[in-house]
Amino acid sequence: MIEVHDLHKHFGGFHAVDGASLRIAPGSITGLIGPNGAGKSTLFNVIAGVLPPTSGRVTMAGEDITGLPPHALFHKGLLRTFQIAHEFHSMTVLENLMMVPGGQAGESLWTTWVARGRIRREEAEIAARAHEVLEFLTIDHLADEKAANLSGGQKKLLELGRTMMVDAKIVFLDEVGAGVNRTLLNTIADAIQRLNAERGYTFVVIEHDMDFIGRICDPVICMAEGKVLAEGTLDEIKADERVIEAYLGT
Ligand code: ADP
Ligand code: MG
Prior knowledge:
Protein name: ABC transporter ATP-binding protein
Domain ABC transporter: 2-250
Pfam family, one: ABC_tran
Keywords: ATP-binding, Nucleotide-binding, Transport
Radius of gyration: 18 Å
Bound molecules: adenosine-5'-diphosphate, magnesium ion
GO molecular function, one term: ATP binding
């Protein structure tokens, strides 16, 4: 589904991504692990069009998508979750979902208002879809809650929910479990697995919680110092000398 060929992203003289190559199989839930500073988030940001690469190539189903902006990738079904931006905190959970079909979440408030005007006639259908998404994620009772009042884990579910408002094909989740309690982490894991099984979403998941990775991800890719070190099941990765060294070295 996604192929990354010899990707580099330099910040000045610093090589955050330093010749990474990998493939994401369609229909997989692929885990991306590695020590802090390995370049995982930077790799995501380059694939998702948030940062331009220094060099290298990214293809999606064989088509070159290198350097395409996030809104173009959004229309191709490639989504990266974003934290709920500050200006959306005063809106309800339902409203946060309803603005998604107008464009990639994280766009300016102005663009969102324009989009809202355009889609007003479809509002009832979009609200119905938003309620379906909330039911799927088991947070329908929070529909009228302000986003600001959600717990960390509930916000993560809302971020995931936004990808369900459009027909996503592949979703990139960066540290989906950070600061999330065990119960909600299980809910998030279930949602990811059901979206994968029932709607055919492909996922690439960065997460430090190895139980979470081991439970839902196959294969797992390990990065260190901007490069891909190893790929395999979590057990294979954990037994890999280079992976052990990379973790011990930090
Ligand atoms: P990870 O997500 O694996 O922890 P990151 O991709 O966030 O790693 O960061 C990789 C390295 O690149 C880190 O050393 C980080 O400090 C550096 N880095 C990330 N973004 C920038 C930036 N915008 N400017 C300069 N250095 C950056
Ligand atoms: Mg990171």
